[in-house]
Structure formats: structure tokens, C-alpha cells
Amino acid sequence: MKLLLVEDNERVARFVCKGLVEAGHTVHHADNGRDGMYHAVSEPYDAIVMDRMLPGGIDGLAIVETLRQGGNRVPILVLSALDGVDDRILGLKRGGDDYLVKPFAFGELLARLDALMRRSQVQAADTTLALGDLSVDLLAHKVTRAGTAIALQPREFKLLEYLLRHANQVVTRTMLLENVWDYHFDPQTNVIDVHISKLRQKIDAPFATPLLKTVRNAGYMLTDRQ
């Protein structure tokens, strides 16, 4: 794993970095809030170990809150000498995934990080749909293709989600009417054609390889197969 440790205590930081590297992880270390914020928002990490009280004008919980407000859901383990119930509750409410009180055993820190990673992997599998270079984040309602953000209207998003859940399968007009529009009869409308056309313009037109195909006399298919 690629980890970020934000910790101003030199002895603690050296101890944690040494143990994490020996466990096979890559660790970047920041010893103040300013540098911690810079690394946390500008680089991707598998998890972050965040001290709560930091020099540099920015405390650890402010960094955590900034990440969460920006939609970053990287697993974060908060470290702190503040061990009151209210302190732990605040750390979790501000966006921390776990809270470990100092002093701590390194084995416990490592076990908690492993647990956070397992949890985040399960959540990612449940909340992300992808086909080729097209990806949909169901929680954040974000769509990207080849790293480019694509803005969709709510109905377009729901249509794309349904097509992705049935990728490489023919989806009929009846299936779309029932599952995207909740129509259990054909209202004799061109609503599907209009939305398919708009969706195609957004997810296909700017890119070299089309994904959304019309299957003659059958329906539609979202596929990366040629």
C-alpha cells in the first residue's frame, strides 16, 4: 500500500515509518499540517495515518474534513493523545474512519489499517461500476471516461447506471421504461430515444471508441467489445 503519515513527533514518526516499511508498504511522511494538507489533496494514497494535533496552522481534523468535503474517501486512521469519548466521537464525525489513542502498539495500528483497507475495497466494489475506460461512482454521482469528468443529468445518470449493470447484454425498451422511468406500459413516447441520444453525445462522441450501441429491432447495449 501507498500510505501517508502526517505526524509531527519525530520519535513516533520514525517508529511508525520503520514498521510500515518493514510490513511492505510505501510511506510518505509530513511533519506539519501545511505539508500534510498538500500531500493529502494532491496525491492518491491507499490510506492515511493522521495525527490530530499538528504544527503549521492546520490540525489533522481540518485536513480530514477538507478531504471529505472534496469527495475523497481514502481510509483515514486518526492518531491522538486525546482519549476522551467526546474526542473520539469528534474525530469520527469530522470524517475519520478509525481513531487510535496514543500511546499505541504498532501491531494494533497495522491491524486497524488492514481492516480499513478491507472495508474500503468492499465498499468500492459495491459503489463503483466500470466498463473499459468508463467509470461511475454511485455514491458521489461522478462519471469519468479516460480520466475526463462527464456531467450527467439525474435521469441520464440512472440510465447509464442501468446500462452498466447490464453491460454486454441487450437491454430492451421495455426494460428501460420499467426500470429507469418506472413505466409499466408503453406511453408511446420518444423519451428513451431522446435520452439515449443525449447520453451517447456525452459518453461516446468525444472519444474514439463508442460504447453505447443500438441493436436493431432489439434495444441497446453498452459494451466495449468490437
Which terms would index this structure?
2 domains; 226 residues; five-stranded parallel beta sheet; Arc Repressor Mutant, subunit A; Rossmann fold; 8 helices; alpha/beta; single chain
Instruction: Note the total helix count.
Output: 8
Write out the CATH superfamily name of the largest domain.
Response regulator
The mean pLDDT is 92
N→C terminal distance: 35 Å
Q: Percent of residues in beta strands? A: 15-25%
Q: How many extended strands? A: 11
Specify Rg, calculated over alpha carbons. 23 Å
**Order of neighbouring strands in the sheet with most strands:** 2-1-3-4-5
**Based on helices, strands and strand pairing, what is the structural class?**
alpha/beta
CATH fold topology of the largest domain? Rossmann fold
The percent range for helix content is 40-55%
Which CATH class of the largest domain applies here?
Alpha Beta
- When the domains are counted, the total is 2
The dominant shape is elongated
Order of helices and strands: EHEHEHEHEHEEEEHHHEE
Runs in which pLDDT lies below 50 for 5 or more consecutive residues are none
Biggest sheet character: 5 strands, parallel
CATH architecture assignment name of the largest domain: 3-Layer(aba) Sandwich
